[in-house]
Amino acid sequence: MKGVDLFEIVMKLNGPVQPTGESNEDHRRLGNIQTLTELIDRLLFEVNNATMEADQPEASMKAIGVHAKEFMEAIKDA
Question: What distance in Å separates the CA atoms of residue 50 and residue 20, rounded to the nearest whole number?
């Protein structure tokens, strides 16, 4: 449920990104998609950095690293 809440909050703060065909509105939405993709890039950077922990001997660190690595591989395969 936490992920859904964060998604809704981010989208509410960011604003819609789907084009409407109306020039003024689509200009605003272009800014929204640029902001959203910048955020996604930064989030993916954080997740990718966490993959470095996949080989750690500490179980808690390894669990985070493995989850991050599996997520990044799923994105790559999509």
Answer: 38
- What residues make up the domain containing 60? 2-77
State pTM to two decimals: 0.86
Average pLDDT of span 22-30: 98
pLDDT at position 47 is 98
Domain count, the chain: 1
